[in-house]
Amino acid sequence: DLSSSTPTLAYFAAGQFEDIKQIWTEDLPLAKITSVSNFFLGHSAFNPQKLVDTIFRELRPLDWQSIRNSKQQFRIHAYNFRQNALVQFNSADNFAGHNPWDLLVGAMTVHNEMLTGEHKDLVDANLFPYCLYQEPLPLDHTYLVIDNFSFWQWGIRQCLGFYMFRLFQSRNFPPEVKRLLKNRLALNRQALQKFEEFLATHQVLTIKYPKHVPPRPLSVMATKQQNLKALFALGQKTAQEFYSQHESEMQGFVSRSTELR
Asked: How far apart are CA 220 and CA 234, in angstroms?
């Protein structure tokens, strides 16, 4: 998986299901990994290193051995801005010898202050969404996709937030990343076109972003416990409603997931 969804899928692959809810609804508000003042001062508004160290390593240790031993293939995606390419690291080959903790940080990095150590060329793959469709996917598979269309189709609020991010957060970004941000709207359009082609040519079950959302915008950047619980509950409700409407098709995914455990 990619971006901040990467650790969630890691805990899923490890079978640590209850930890997922506890982390995002109970632990995250206490970790203080985001800072509004840092956002406007040009420092990193989100600290993925602190998130990994304080929660994933110490408070609720992620069991990497269970992930390695699983029949599932868990992949960590990141974008190498020096090579202009999506890179992936697979649990099936022990992440090619890389430290998975460092890979988690790289997969969530969106600020130059976090570009340190062995993986200083890796950033959040969401900075270049078009690259996600470079790898051909078999036609004879059925795919389950969670599609947040607000990511692809930005309104005024999303565009304003993005331009504020560029203004305050990207001052000292490497030039390669600045170019990605400058072309982000065009990249979004290309990604949406590729995604629509994928839906037309493959067997896909799609869980879509709810049409009716709470009047107050929800975001993990708003790390108050009440906000995060509402966001988590919205995701659960959406998935449960989808399952009830597609139970026969979803049974195949449930059976396969159980088999791979």
From this structure: 13
- DSSP state, residue 114: G
In angstroms, the CA 52 to CA 76 distance is 14
pLDDT at 58: 95
pLDDT tens-place string over residues 195-223: 888 889 988 898 887 766 554 554 545 56
pLDDT in tens, 15-65: 999 999 999 888 987 788 888 899 899 999 889 999 999 999 999 999 999
For residues 205 and 142, the answer to whether their CB atoms sit within 8 Å is yes
CA distance to 53, 82, 84, per residue, from 121 (Å): 20, 6, 10
The partner residues of 80 in beta bridges, in order of sequence, read 85, 122
Cβ-Cβ contacts under 8 Å for 142 (sequence gap 6 or more):
203, 204, 205, 249, 252
Q: DSSP letter at 34?
A: B
Using CA atoms, how far apart are residues 71 and 259, in angstroms rounded to an integer? 9
Distance CA 52, CA 61 (A): 10
State the alpha helices, DSSP H only, in the chain: 5-14, 17-22, 28-31, 36-41, 48-51, 64-69, 100-107, 149-152, 156-169, 175-182, 184-201, 225-245, 247-260
Q: Which residues is 143 bridged to in the sheet?
A: 204
